[in-house]
Amino acid sequence: MTLEVAITMRQGAFALDVAFEAPAGITVLFGRSGAGKTSIVNAVAGLARPEAGRIAVDGSVLYDSAAGVNLPPHKRRMGCIFQDARLFPHLTVAQNLAFGRWFSKTGPEQARVVEMLGIGPLMGRRPGALSGGERQRVAIGRALMAGPRMLLADEPLAALDEARKAEILPYFERLRDEMGVPVLYVSHAPAEVARLATTVVALDGGGVLRQGPAAEVLGDPQVMPLGPRAAGSVLEARVVAHHADGLSELDAGGLRLHLPAVRHAEGAALRVHVQAADVMLAIRPPEGISALNVWPAAVRELRMGSGPGAIVRLDAGGQALLARITRRSVEALELAPGREVYAVLKAVSVAPESVA
């Protein structure tokens, strides 16, 4: 199922002009506050009307200014998940799920949704007796029970603390991999994007900077809608071994990557988000250091900032890797495209939520 969006709209001084296609899986609208992410979600849901353009899901037109088509929200069959769960406080979890079913007779079996989200023990409780993470899981379940053609998730984890976010992320992964319902997901958290996204649409100032797979978009030094401090890379890796000292060993395209123990079996395919600020560079093989990850690499591109910083795009064994260093270091190391270097990454610098 494919979502097609090509719209223009104005809200006060803000102008939105975007065009993109979102294939199956989770498509993340990524960018800073005010980039237009929520405006796009509202237009797809039918809560805001564009000035012109077209929105279609799998060929079914939801909005077309030229043809005079503008389906009302209840006919678009969109399941919405917000920052706050918006459950009915006077209903139990089971009754909230049943309300979702009221909108459709063709949604998934309740037992499957309950099992996938791990909410079986919560069925008799009311929202006031649930944690924030539990309420969001129930909200996801209610949206699924309505049998939507697509889910719209507008920063669903923004109101949760880090522990609750870590609790919810695996359920969005299962939703992506098992349910077959496409998701349009809003986020400004790079690690979250790297972990969940099938496709990333990077936005800035009401326009699309770039669209593509997470590794390509997040690894492009020209696409940094949140600024250089948020720059990072996505490494595709596979678990090789778990060691007795609490470290896991991964193979990232021929690169050996050591991390604190990951909760995945040997052979599992993973994504690892590496922040550019955590990557150091050396022109000779470093010796006598505590960092466990040292990889030969080649400089492919330099992006000099307006301040003291610079972003270096590296090719490390076929993997795109970003390093954020100072302009002084660029000059001292005489870095230029083609220069061979060594990339250094401390094992403990990669947080557990950055591996999935």
UniProtKB/TrEMBL annotation:
| Any one GO cellular component localisation term in the record | membrane
- Fetch the InterPro entries from UniProt: AAA+_ATPase, ABC_transporter-like_ATP-bd, ABC_transporter-like_CS, Mo/tungstate-bd_C_term_dom, ModC_ABC_ATP-bd, Molybdenum_import_ModC, Mop_domain, P-loop_NTPase
Q: Specify the Mop domain's residue ranges.
A: 288-354
* Residue ranges of domain ABC transporter in the record: 1-230
Please provide the record's keywords in A-Z order: ATP-binding, Cell inner membrane, Cell membrane, Membrane, Molybdenum, Nucleotide-binding, Translocase, Transport
Entry GO MF terms? ABC-type transporter activity; ATP binding; ATP hydrolysis activity; molybdate ion transmembrane transporter activity
Q: Which domain of life is it from?
A: Bacteria
Entry annotated with the keyword Cell inner membrane: yes
Q: Which Gene3D superfamilies match?
A: 2.40.50.100, P-loop containing nucleotide triphosphate hydrolases
One of its Pfam families is: ABC_tran
Q: Which NCBIfam families does the record match to this protein?
A: modC_ABC
Q: What's the protein here called?
A: Molybdate transport system ATP-binding protein
Q: Source species, please?
A: Vannielia litorea
The root-end lineage is: Bacteria, Pseudomonadati, Pseudomonadota, Alphaproteobacteria, Rhodobacterales
